Amino acid sequence: MESLPGGTSLIYLSNNIIRCTTSTKLDEDSTYGIKGFMVKGEFVKSRSNEAGRSFDMVFSQSEGFDNILTNLCNFKDMGLLKGSPRAYYLEALPDIKFTLKTFKEKYMESKELRKEVKRLVKENYINFIPGSKNYIQYSPEEEDDEITFKCIDEEQDIWLGSDGNYYDSEGNSIEVEEE
Predict the structure, then answer these.
(1) For all residues of the chain together, what is the average pLDDT?
(2) DSSP label at residue 146
(3) What is residue 25's DSSP assignment?
(4) E strands of 33-114, at which residues?
(5) Is 61:69 a contact under the CB 8 Å cutoff?
(6) 24/69 Cα distance (integer angstroms)
(7) How confident is the model at residue 135 (pLDDT cuts 50, 70, 90)?
(8) Do 130 and 52 contact (CB within 8 A), yes or no?
(9) Burial class (CB in 10 A: 0-12, 13-18, 19+), 177
(10) What is the pLDDT of residue 146?
(11) In Å, what is the CA distance from 151 to each residue of 11, 64, 73, 102, 161?
(12) Band of the pLDDT at 138, cuts 50, 70, 90?
């Protein structure tokens, strides 16, 4: 039996309560090519979803939550990956082949792949939330491949782009040594 501190008001007032449980350990030589772990999330209470619905997430020990590999994991579970473990591909892009280990690298290289992943996320994740079609608008024609930036070092003028690359304040790509 599980319990939460703070009485019953926390449970009553919460819109969502999600239980996160570490499941599988990941080695650099294994499935996704990272040192980390899988986390299974399960809706214990939700006002916008079904209680008991679960999902998997990929965490890197050095970077934390990995959205790109989490999407890949969920695409695999949804049956959206075609081919075999030696050469997966997405149905709309049969010429771009990847393995689970090389997907992130291909994703960063290929603008086409990023657009297709974004389209699949919008198209398929909308089904994860029952009734969401009434309030989430999705248009397949809507394509913005705009990069967003976050300053990670003001002193050295280093910005991290949503594409995973580093930039200066002028928007020029720069090399950054990992510590």
Answers:
(1) 82
(2) P
(3) E
(4) 36-46, 54-60, 64-65, 81-84, 87-90, 93-98
(5) no
(6) 14
(7) very low
(8) no
(9) exposed
(10) 60
(11) 37, 18, 29, 28, 9
(12) very low
Angle at 61 (CA atoms; ends 58, 65), nearest 5 degrees: 40
Cα three-residue angle 31-25-72, rounded to 5 degrees: 40
pLDDT above 70: percentage of residues in the chain: 85
pLDDT tens sequence across 30-69: 889 999 999 999 988 877 777 788 889 999 998 899 999 9
* Alpha helices (H) along 55-174: 67-78, 103-109, 111-125
Distance between CA 161 and CA 108 in Å, rounded? 11
Compute the average pLDDT of residues 105-131: 84
Q: Answer yes or no: are the C-beta atoms of 80 and 120 closer than 8 Å.
A: yes
Residue with tokens 């990956």: 81
Tokens, residue 177? 């040594």
- In this prediction, residues 96-113 reach a mean pLDDT of 93
Q: How far is CA 82 from CA 78, 89, 128, in A?
A: 11, 5, 21
DSSP state of 168: -
Distance CA 72, CA 57 (A): 10
| Residue with token string 């599988």 | 24
The conformation of residue 69, written as its DSSP 8-state character, comes to H
